[in-house]
Amino acid sequence: xxxxxxxxxxxxxxxxxxxxxxxxxxxxxxxxxxxxxxxxxxxxxxxxxxxxxxxxxxxxxxxxxxxxxxx
Length: 71
Known about the structure:
Structural class: alpha+beta
């Protein structure tokens, strides 16, 4: 099972490159997967226990899967 997240603070991305750049830069995302963590802020440093992570972007119409935390 994976964790689904969306950009936080009203951010959105048009392409996968910008989405992954902010993810690897440690910017905040919001957990969108239904469960006890729904709505919680998360970044790549927090995600190690939740990998893989699916990031929804482009008005939630596109996704990219992150399977490892880039250091």
